[in-house]
Specification:
It contains no helices and six strands. With about 110 residues, it is mostly beta strands. The mean pLDDT is about 80.
């Protein structure tokens, strides 16, 4: 069992509690580059699959993948990976625990 707390102003607060499990979840990386007529995006070298498997209740980097992939797209700036097509959900970070199968959508801003 894993428990994560934060301490603020001398008070410990429970952030999240995990049960140990070897279950894995599939994380799909959708480059989200087909709707605006712009050029295709590409994943970084060494990240050839559009998905990966992450052990339940862990973070991306803990599963041997290194940093979260940062795709490139000519004429665009990558804003991050989101759980929704529009950037209305929180951006995925190295500290985002994976708690279920996910499809993540790249968000882009035209330069």
């Amino acid at each position: 069992h894993k428990i994560i707390y934060t301490k603020r102003d001398g008070v410990w607060t429970l952030v999240i509690s995990f049960n140990d499990s070897q279950e894995t979840y599939k994380v799909i990386f959708n480059l989200n580059d087909k709707t605006d007529g712009g050029p295709e995006a590409s994943m970084p070298d060494g990240f050839d699959l559009p998905y990966c498997y992450i052990q339940r209740n862990t973070y991306f980097k803990q599963n041997g993948y290194g940093n979260i992939p940062v795709p490139t797209r000519e004429g665009y700036t990558f804003l991050g990976w989101y759980k929704t097509i529009g950037p209305t959900s929180g951006v995925l970070t190295d500290l985002t625990p994976i708690l279920s199968d996910l499809e993540l959508y790249a968000q882009w801003a035209k330069k």
